């Protein structure tokens, strides 16, 4: 073991500090637990809604793109059900020196879930990027056939489940549990700071950077396939507006009454109609390109914003060794990373027109069923008709109208 240097320990040291036995501050626990519970509720409900819609509409899961998207939502539900509650338990678990090994075991399971979430999310987002690249650049001869996609997703799950057990296989895991030394959890007898206990961090960091590199490459090629240049996008939009204005002004002049003897009137009107159709096609194409560019930037920015801070803290822990401040900061950034369970349905599912249409249909049917009048025993709605008949005496009759017609 190395000696203390500037108030922190270097790699290889196993030590105990007085502050390590204190739990997290109350404000830290309340705020972070509130955020995690909100992410759990929103992420679970949104992803479950997407899966219900996909299962209810058999025509939605009819392509490789929808298959890989469903796979991502299944992963998000597992993260909400298994990983998020374990993170809440790690934050709220009080420090208890009598329970030797309990906190260390919980922290190791927590690190296994974090490793699973990090690697599985990065790999699934990478697969979705490859699928979108394949369908945009090679639409006629796709490389990701349904059979290849199934094999690829099976390999994704095999890798994700394999990395889950990595924290249990690192270094002297059982001896560290017996000594109640934790893996990146505040409140134990200390941190086991041997480098052999942090191979799972060494795996998470390159997985993140590889996923980012693949996303940048695939989405840039998608934009190139659609003839979209980010730098000249606004300039082309301005030129398109100028061209549209000139054509519309020409159309206005062409609509002015001309002498019947003019030979080129009919040809001019035909040319104006053709120009209007060309302008409409150009507008639709530019709108589609603008939408693709916007969604590509949002997807990449969301993944970077959620997972880049956690990867940066992992690098700091690998370089400097664990400390209470870095562990608390890592938990905050882990809560940010869990936010992808909320963003994924918004970015990958509800942007699809078929899914939005299916959701509107189900919501409309649900609202109609709630507002529908209770039927009479004969299957009709009771309508009371009153009128005055001879002598001013009021008589009533009851009519039944079949509401199904």
Automatic annotation (TrEMBL):
Family matches, as CDD domains: 7tm_classA_rhodopsin-like
Entry annotated with the keyword Cell membrane: yes
A single MF term (Gene Ontology): peptide binding
GO annotations of cellular component type: plasma membrane
Gene3D superfamilies in the record: Rhodopsin 7-helix transmembrane proteins
Xref: PROSITE patterns: G_PROTEIN_RECEP_F1_2 (PS50262)
Protein name stated in the entry: G-protein coupled receptor 22
